[in-house]
Amino acid sequence: MAFTAPHVPHIFVFGLGYSAHALARHLRQSGTLISATCRTREKQRRLRDAGIDAHIFDRSNALDTDGRRALEQATHLLSSVPPDEDGDPVIDLHGGDIRNAAPFDWIGYLSTTGVYGNRDGATVDETADLTPSGSRGRRRLLAEQAWFSLGEAGPVQTFRLAGIYGPGRNALETVRSGRAKRVVKPGQVFSRIHVDDIRQILLASMAKPENGAAYNCCDDDPAPPQEVIAYACELMGVEPPPEIPFEEAELSPMARSFYADNKRVSNDRIKRELGVDLLWPSYRSALKTLHDLSDRAS
């Protein structure tokens, strides 16, 4: 089913990144007032020119008076700001302001499936133990717990995102840029989620808030990363890069850390409880459409 935006007079978004911006664009079309944070004056100017009430925020720059006033006036709250080594910057700097601005009709936190850790290819759902295998996953788990502790401020939901892709951020773009690699680690699979489906999951949750709920956000088609690159090359009619054994691949420490976790992620809850019908249940249909749209635009 397709979702339309519920009545959201004013949403405040900490960290207007790729996923949150997709939601904000949709909500603006329904007349919703959008307040959001960013980290640079240049982006602040661009967002304000686009009609978004933008404020500077990061660990070193708490919201100013205008930003706090916008937060106080908001009815809905979303954070996509990742935790750092010291914790969650939003909670640390503005947890008290959030409580003072309460009650919110809905509070959402964008987390990751990394909180489940490694399962050697087994399937996890939202009832699985949270056993993150690396420092980033452990920080995410602590951040989730910090957000859930704000339950008295309104219904808090966390959204555990798989690998995010969509327009301008996908395997086709990786191939075009010359950065594509086919790193092979036998048995390794990753789950993915199209940004359009993140948007509709968030909208569905706003229409049906449930305090303390966690939702896995992924498609129906977990796959080895080298297969996704090979399919992108097939669509583009180019020769795929050679396969490289994981042990021999030149990867950044962060890229290598992703391969430490191997699991399939169940998305049954978003379908059963939120009624979500994925727009892009497989990376194959999504990449084919993105490729066709690119061809028509060129």
Keyword list:
single chain, alpha/beta, Rossmann fold, 11 helices, 13 strands, globular, NAD(P)-bd_dom_sf
Task: Give structural notes.
- Helix 3 crosses helix 4.
- This protein has a domain of 195 residues: Rossmann fold (3-Layer(aba) Sandwich).
- The strands form 4 sheets. The chain has a 7-stranded parallel β-sheet with strand order 3-2-1-4-5-7-11, with helices on both faces. Strands 6-13 form a two-stranded parallel sheet.
- Helix content is 39%, strand content 18%.
- The protein contains 11 helices and 13 strands.
- With 298 residues, it is α/β, with parallel strands linked by helices.
- It comes from Pacificispira spongiicola.
- Keywords: NAD.
- This is SDR family oxidoreductase.
How would you briefly describe this protein structure?
This protein has 298 residues and is α/β, with parallel strands linked by helices.
Identify the quaternary structure here: single chain
The average pLDDT value, as a whole number, equals 95
Biggest sheet record: 7 strands, parallel
CATH classification, class level of the domain at 10-163 and 193-219 and 266-279:
Alpha Beta
Number of DSSP strands? 13
Series of secondary-structure elements, N-terminal to C-terminal = EHEHEHEHEEHEEHEEHEHEHEHH
Q: Tell me the strand percentage band.
A: 15-25%
CATH architecture descriptor name of the domain at 10-163 and 193-219 and 266-279: 3-Layer(aba) Sandwich
Distance between the termini: 32 Å
Shape summary: globular
SS summary, helix count: 11
Give the helix/strand class: alpha/beta
CATH superfamily of the domain at 10-163 and 193-219 and 266-279: NAD(P)-binding Rossmann-like Domain
Low-confidence stretches: 1-8
Helix percentage: 25-40%
CATH topology name of the domain at 10-163 and 193-219 and 266-279: Rossmann fold
Lateral strand order in the biggest sheet: 3-2-1-4-5-7-11
**Radius of gyration from the alpha-carbon trace, in angstroms:** 19 Å
